[in-house]
Every structure is written in structure tokens, then in C-alpha cells.
């Protein structure tokens, strides 16, 4: 599954939104921790919810 979001500037930081269906699917809430795995060779970012 793919979902496209735009990157925006907020208070000097770059941010993006988490689509509602993803938030609901993974039960994301304010304060949850997401781990970013960054693959510079493939130009790919993977997000994982940390329990």
C-alpha cells in the first residue's frame, strides 16, 4: 500500500502528516514513539511504532 503526503515547514522544522487510516490502523496517539529507519542508498524511510 502506498500513500503520498506533502512535507511542510512548521516552526522551522519539516513535518508531514500521518493519514487518518494509518493512525487508526496502528492506533497511533499523541506521545507515541516512531522509529525512523533511513536507507540513503535506496532513498527510503521506514517508520516503525515502538511499544
From TrEMBL:
SpoVT-AbrB domain segment(s): 7-50
Record-level Gene Ontology MF annotations: DNA binding
Top-rank taxon, per record: Archaea
Transmembrane segments: none
Name of this chain's protein: AbrB family transcriptional regulator
